[in-house]
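During the reporting period the student researcher (J.K.) took over the structure-prediction task from the postdoctoral fellow and processed the backlog of single-chain submissions. One of the processed entries is reproduced below for the supervisory committee.
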Amino acid sequence: MEPVKIIPCLDMKDGRVVKGVHFIDLRDAGDPVENAAFYQAEGADEMAMLDIAATVEGRKTRIEWASRVAEVLQIPLVVGGGIADLADMDALFDVGVSKVSVNSAAVKRPELLTEAAAQFGSERVIVAIDGRRNDEMPSGFEVVVSGGQKPTGIDCVEWARRCEDLGAGEILPTSMDGDGTLAGYDIPFTRAIAETVSLPVIASGGAGELEHFYEGVMEGKATALLAASVFHFRTFTVSQVKDYLAERGIPVNR
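J.K. obtained the following structure tokens:
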């Protein structure tokens, strides 16, 4: 097994890190640059930064936010939210961003993934799949966009398979039912996607206990673990999570 990556996530709104439940009821969680530097020192493998209001507000992601965070990092920075085209991606890569995460734009125009992979390389293109339970879908999970506000009628697992075919390099599934709840990753959702694609899958949404990280790998089949609340509010440190996983026999980067 390859070492499992631990990825703190900076959800951004109005220049601050925020965290809510089900993408609403947001609480302030500090300055993004200070948080990023802290998590890097703690041993984070990558940093994610998601402009959660960009698509909803109909604007581009804030390049200046990404630039300020990238300046203090030596680890890879993933940025998502409001990325609509190749020019948006190029602008982010120019300020030091390592990978981009797209969701709504890929659903709207799937060929964007093929174009991005051809121009920048698949390894720099992550597809974020926000899913919500819907028994009418073959897998039981439906893709939602616009910050979780709009259902699409697309099955999450089928969409993940298509994204791989189109050229995506990683999949980031987030359970809207679990986001911010601290009740654990949505294991059936994560595993359904991980067992369908051959790409790395990043578990996201709901981690609240150390056991949840272990379950994300062993039961959810994830190769990386993203979390926000438990890190922002200092429930656990990155190093505590890594120590726990290592003690349970899961390889991590030191």
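The committee noted the following: Residues 5-247 form a domain with the TIM Barrel fold (CATH 3.20.20.70).
J.K. will present the remaining backlog at the next meeting.
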